[in-house]
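Task: sequence in, structure out. Protein: Replication protein.
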Amino acid sequence: MHLLIKESPLQVLPSLVMQVGLNEAILLQQLHFRSLISTHVRDGHKWVYKTYDEWKNEEFPFWSVDTIKRAIRRLEENGYIISTASYNRMKMDKTKWYRINYERLQFPTGQLAPSDNQKE
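Result:
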């Protein structure tokens, strides 16, 4: 019997989809995963930096850049992610740095946000 999955799957929780939307939940989950392995710590938070093209080419080849921009913009506008370009070394570099605002997410009673258990 052959398995269908032969690569790393994307995961999404239905409760997160209900809270933020499908595309936004997928992007947020992937940002969370990337945050866990990130070594970029600024102002006491782990950050992930990517251009929109990098999000498309490395994470979401099935979405257009416009779809990624819309999902990120909605997450930013609703306070689920915080982004900045101020950590770039060169002012002309417009690569955005992202972190999740875990306080904004509503977790079921008793479930801790990942940042509650991590030492930074």
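The first helix runs from residue 14 to 20.
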